[in-house]
Amino acid sequence: QVQLVESGGGLVEPGGSRNLSCTASSNIFRLYTMAWYRQAPGKQRELVARITSSNVVDYIREAVKGRFTISRDNAARTVYLQMKNLSPEDTAVYYCNLGEGSPVDVWGQGTQVTVSS
């Protein structure tokens, strides 16, 4: 079973930047769409950005357009989420997902991003 390990979370001041990474344990990574989700306290998990196996970004949440960038490196089995101009509303646990809706459908453990002064 493939595993996903996220990293890069932490405390950042408003207006700051943070880069998240999610690395898969298997080369099947290259076959699947990857996505970043987030879940803020008391709220439902929401899709932030998604990138296909062909490196096409097919979804960016309206609230993060122009501030967040998703990318992937199949050789490194890693998907990235570059976040800039962060606001307190971006505070959440960020999760990566491999192959949602497919028979694989694997989630990472989540990484906390807190935006606060």
Key features?
single chain, 117 residues, mainly beta, 11 strands
Secondary structure: elements and pairs:
Layout: E1 4-7, E2 10-12, E3 18-24, E4 34-39, E5 46-51, E6 57-60, E7 68-73, E8 78-83, E9 92-98, E10 106-107, E11 111-115
Parallel strand pairs: 2-11
Antiparallel strand pairs: 1-3, 3-8, 4-5, 4-9, 5-6, 7-8, 9-10, 9-11
Describe the structure.
Strands 2, 4, 5, 6, 9, 10 and 11 form a seven-stranded mixed β-sheet that branches. This protein has a four-stranded antiparallel β-sheet with strand order 1-3-8-7, with no helix packed on it. It starts with a strand and ends with a strand. It has 117 residues and is mainly beta. The radius of gyration is 13 Å and the shape is globular. It is built from no helices and eleven strands.
**Biggest beta-sheet profile:** 7 strands, mixed
Mean pLDDT: 97
If you compute it from the alpha carbons, what radius of gyration comes out, rounded to the nearest whole angstrom?
Answer: 13 Å
Number of discrete helical segments: 0
User: What is the structural class?
Assistant: mainly beta
How big a fraction of the residues is strand?
over 45%
State the end-to-end CA separation. Answer: 40 Å
Number of β-strand runs:
11
Quaternary class = single chain
Shape: globular
Low-confidence stretches: none
Helix content: under 10%
Order of helices and strands: EEEEEEEEEEE
